[in-house]
Write a structure and sequence with these properties.
294 residues, alpha/beta, 9-stranded mixed β-sheet, 17% strand
Amino acid sequence: MRAGPAGDVTRSFDIPDSETGDRTASRPPTSPLRRFLTTEDGVNIEAVYDPGGVVYNASHLLSDDTGKPLGSPPVIVVAHGFTGGVDRPHVRRVVAALTRYGSVVAFSFRGHGRSGGHSTVGDREVLDLAAAVRWARDLGHERVVTVGFSMGGSVVLRHAALPDAGIDAVVSVSAPARWYYRGTAPMRRLHWLVTRPAGRLVGRYGFGTRIHHRDWDPVPPSPVESVPLIAPTPLLIVHGDSDGYFPVDHPRMLAEAADGHAELWLEEGMGHAEHAATGELLDRVGDWVLGTGG
């Protein structure tokens, strides 16, 4: 599956009672916005824009080694994990931390929250991310960085591999390297949730996630197949050595596939995805984003 031209995937319209404003801005907005975005395949995706806070403006002066300014801080597009969503507390905590380093666009993948459609667990979600990236550009930001967690971590890798992704750096946290992994108990439970009718009912009513009943056809490129196509875009891979879903051979496979292009952080004692991302880790991710010039 290919996402199509990154510049052709998005139409946006206001959620009732959201703030108004021009769709395409010459300067980034200074107040929060909430919108529905329409993806290339016609799914409405709920997205929220949070402008960067005072802290990064005051304490992070962007410059290269010669002292030449690199410009304004980026917009960071956050891609959540499976069963997450734009208004989930753990996602909002990540957003709040990253607004110290740039403005943030967060969104709910298809089948999650108030977004339309059904989750395809990492396949068509590339179109959702492409829509969010396009909206970030429409809002007047020159530089866009994607940060994804778990399922979202696989999506940002696949999206970054597209020749027209339109991003300046990518961070993948707690992502799988390969599909259909069932080597841990949490992943066996997840496969039951996705593949069985009873599991999909639990997903809908227990986790607020509508899951598509069809198998992938064709099977999309895996994260490890996508990583070699990301260069020269800066890439950071973050993974916990206590991740209960994907053991450390997954991030090592991803880093090896990058052939020296990616930076790998194996975090001691860290579990899985947004819930395990400490404020200290998110600060280091934010510093990395600024340090790339992304």
